[in-house]
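dumping this here so i dont lose it
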C-alpha cells in the first residue's frame, strides 16, 4: 500500500537527506538530481540494485511534480539518492 505524504521539498530534504550528484556537481534539487540517461542513469541503476530504498524518482504529471520512492519509468524528470531510506512506498507532493 502506498502512503501519500504531503510536504514541502525542504521538509523532504530534511527527512531523507538527498546526496549531491557527484557526477555533475550542479543542477536541480540543490545539485542532487541525476539525469535519466548517460552516466547518471548507469550510476542510479547500480545504486538501485544495491540499495533500492535509497533511490527516488522525480516525476511530472498534470497535478504537478512528485517525488516517488523507488525506480519509476513514466514521466521521469530525474532521480535522487538519499542518505536515509524510504519507509515503504512513499509519494511526496512537492507542489506549493
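and the seq i came up w/
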Amino acid at each position: 500500500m502506498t502512503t501519500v505524504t504531503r510536504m514541502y521539498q525542504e521538509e523532504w530534504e530534511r527527512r531523507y537527506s538527498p546526496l549531491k550528484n557527484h557526477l555533475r556537481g550542479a543542477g536541480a534539487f540543490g545539485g542532487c538530481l541525476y539525469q535519466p540517461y548517460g552516466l547518471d542513469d548507469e550510476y542510479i541503476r547500480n545504486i538501485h540494485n544495491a540499495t533500492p530504498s535509497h533511490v527516488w524518482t522525480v516525476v511530472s504529471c498534470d497535478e504537478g511534480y512528485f517525488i516517488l520512492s523507488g525506480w519509476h519509468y513514466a514521466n521521469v524528470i530525474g532521480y535522487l539518492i538519499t542518505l536515509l531510506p524510504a519507509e515503504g512506498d512513499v509519494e511526496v507532493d512537492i507542489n506549493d
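The longest strand covers residues 55-61.
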